[in-house]
DNA sequence: TATCATGCAATATATGATGTTACATGAAAC
DNA sequence: GTTTCATGTAACATCATATATTGCATGATA
């Protein structure tokens, strides 16, 4: 089962944006993330609509953070991505006529619903600012400096 | 993100097996589940190794439950399937050099780990017997009778 | 007006689950 | 014993879909 890395990717991009002094182009981000600029734009589209980032065309354009990092939780980012499916487990049939399958689905859904609530609550409790703090702590601990180009070069 | 329906499918099959009087062939199950006999055998392989079901070759052969339903939890079945990935969310990079990505991964993993614990505990608390009880309650409530062939005909 | 950057649709590629075929093994029926 | 039935498994085919790419339109700056 292939896993969806969009949330991970977007958070990564956002934190790098937060570190940058000016706007960063899709191309620069794409190079750093080893992917295509269009993929970056697709990822960011939801965040732009949600007002978390701002994009500018033309010379000197690119992407920039539009909100205080402390005001955006992982849950917000997740929602801005369209609240993608959290679980890899699914049902064989969504609306089964078979009563056995209904019972199975009900049991699984019950557990999944609770886990989903827990997970989203956790996401809601973590802000981008908190991630940034953690990142800076790691930077101090490692003694390394960082910038988008050099860190993602290797 | 495509979802893995193996757990759902196996549970469905197991409960039907429990209702059956004698061994059920892969072909019969496959017809009921609208899939291929080989797929059924693949699903059941882990359960056979775990000792939850028994298979017999030749005339009158097929699959049968080998354990008391009360002694098998959803967690056991999940493990017998090889403990497949629970979450659709993953990391962009598993062992990133980038400290930003490390911080992101750590935050996500933290939340996911707790959700996983909750989910597996829930699975551990539900036995096949409980599912069977629920199924019979549904059958009474609906007034319908059931058997493998007729229920899955349409 | 030439260049740079996003916006977006359409298409291509890659990956992995699911489905299928083929054949070997073993058990029961005849 | 030989025929039939069923599982066991590997190899292969298909299909779904996430990801990547291409192409072109739009708008902003030099």
TrEMBL record, chains A, B:
Pfam families: Rrf2 (PF02082). It comes from Qipengyuania qiaonensis. InterPro entries: Tscrpt_reg_Rrf2, WH-like_DNA-bd_sf, WH_DNA-bd_sf. This is Rrf2 family transcriptional regulator. It comes from the Bacteria.
